[in-house]
Amino acid sequence: MASKKKKEAEDIDKEVSKVEDEEQVQPKSDAEGEEGTQSSEVEQGAAEVKADKESDESTAEDTGAEQKDEPDDDKKEEEKEADVTAESEQKDESSKKKSKSKEDAKAESEQKDEPEPKKEKVEEAVAKEEEKGKKKDKKKDKKDKKKEELPPGAHLEPLLVEDQKKREETDEDVAERYAAEAEVSKKSDEVDETKDGSEDATPEVRGEKGEGDVEQKPKSKPVKIDPGKKYQATGKRKRSIARVNLKAGSGEMVVNNHSVKEYFPRDLLQHKVFEPLRASGAEGQVDIVARVHGGGIAGQAQAVGHGIARALVSADPELRAVLKKRGHLTRDARVKERRKAGLKKARKRPQFSKR
């Protein structure tokens, strides 16, 4: 509104100035009456223009004052808020300074109360720590050297099964133990035979010593074998199969065209082969030729022993009771259990995973 009024006032001023210029240009010879009428009209127009100007200026001043009053109030409020925040900050800073000063005073008082450590004690403590560090470094170096020298797993003790521990005994001890067991079995067999009311049995046979008698080893009975016959039998263990040919002789034994000691070098396996002969008392009275195939060396040894026991029974049926009692005629049916689907072995399961 104010801008429009200003423009109107400017237009009026321009018209007035144009009129004045025209009056000056007009000749002086005009009539005086005309001059009077024109001057009166001009004066009236100028008065109206001035009145309009004054009214416009008054309205503009009123609007400007109102506009100025509004920002002045906002500025005053902002200034008040800034003053309040500044005062609060000053109070906080003063409280912080006071608390810091109190803490510093307490620390100084504590330091004054505590006795100052002597230089000598400090030096001794530092020296001890250095010595400890040097010792630790030396120990680490020694351990590293030992680890480099030793092969991996040298510090572990070997795990031995009981059978392996027994085998690691000296061979002489094992042979003596087996011989003692064979002697005891022979004595027990003879005692069983003489138990049927034979009071005339000598004290040596009963396993007792008479007065003045010397201990004698029990003699093995001769096996009833026809010298011109050959006896055949098959023995089995696990996947091993042995075919045994037995005849009367001097006690020679051949397995797959090798001697027993060559084919079965371990004493335990040799004992498994000769055990039926010792139990029946036919050791040294029979020649044996055996052929074995399948399985491992331990299974083959047990298969040969099984075949020898069967061949002895076919040669002399009276030996059946003795061999059956000791379990040489029973076929050992224990075999490796088959692997199941979803497992690593027969019973071993894969590691459990929760997710």
Structural account:
- With 355 residues, this protein is of the alpha+beta class.
- Among the domains are: 1-25 and 36-102; 222-333, Ribosomal Protein S5, domain 2 (2-Layer Sandwich).
- The chain has ten helices and five strands, in the order ααααααββββααβαα.
- Strand 1 (231-237) and strand 2 form a beta hairpin.
- It is elongated.
Topology:
Blueprint: H1 2-25, H2 32-113, H3 119-149, H4 162-167, H5 171-194, H6 203-206, E1 231-237, E2 240-248, E3 253-255, E4 258-259, H7 260-263, H8 267-280, E5 286-293, H9 297-315, H10 320-326
Parallel strand pairs: 3-5
Antiparallel strand pairs: 1-2, 2-5, 3-4
Helix pairs in contact: 1-2, 5-8, 8-9
Provide a compact summary of the structure.
The protein has helices spanning 2-25, 32-113, 119-149, 162-167, 171-194, 203-206, 260-263, 267-280, 297-315, 320-326; strands at residues 231-237, 240-248, 253-255, 258-259, 286-293.
> Gap between N and C termini, in Å?
82 Å
What does the overall shape look like?
A: elongated
Q: Give helix % range.
A: 55-70%
Stated plainly, the CATH topology of the domain at 222-333 is called Ribosomal Protein S5, domain 2
Mean pLDDT, to the nearest integer, reads 76
What CATH first level of the domain at 222-333 would be assigned?
Alpha Beta
Strand order of the largest sheet: 1-2-5-3-4
What is the C-alpha radius of gyration, as a whole number of Å?
66 Å
